[in-house]
Amino acid sequence: MSQFLTPNVDVVNHPDGHVLVVGDVAVEPSANDAVVPAGAAQATFLLADLGYACSLTGFVGSDEAGVALIRSLQARAISTDILAVPQWPTYVTSSQSAVTNQEAAGEAPEQQRVLPFNGMSEYQAHLQNRVERGVRNASRLVVVDQGYGSVGDPPATVFAAAQHQIPSLVLCAPHQARHYIKASRVVEVGPTVTSQELVQWLRESEPGFNGPPVY
Fold this sequence. Notes:
Layout: E1 18-23, E2 25-28, E3 36-38, H1 39-49, E4 54-61, H2 64-75, E5 79-85, H3 101-104, H4 110-114, H5 122-134, E6 138-145, H6 154-163, E7 168-172, E8 185-188, H7 195-204
Parallel strand pairs: 1-4, 1-6, 4-5, 6-7, 7-8
Antiparallel strand pairs: 2-3
């Protein structure tokens, strides 16, 4: 077992019918030290604003930003299954650019190179295990993948939702889209997630939806 990963992590029981959000948890830079969620964290807040019971599975660093972000999520009654990675800072992204030139070429983001991620690491295996538990009583799966390395096996993540016959939405950087061809829907986005993508998909994934109205 890696010295970085604590094996004794409490099991989290999410509420029935929750929307499970998984993937790259990040924050945006802030001039006044406020914690501004980005990536998977932002998607989760947006879902909560829309009135959905939701949960978030992912990683933060063992720093003030990570602690503050978890507290903000819990204050909104969001079920959290977040592992704090020792000796690593919470990912801080920029809302001005979706990906760097290196990331667009399929190379790992710079911060990923200093994470204890190497192939299908213990952290990524931990996340996949939590996804497989979380989808058991979920109504939908939302994957946010900017290529930071949280999701080690994208096809397996989407397959977990398919096994339980729930729809999956992937919000990802353009260079990650090819990994999610089996998802119900894939939308290419930058680190800043907007409610537009979520609202449309949530409506389309409601039982009985037969497509947009025909005029």
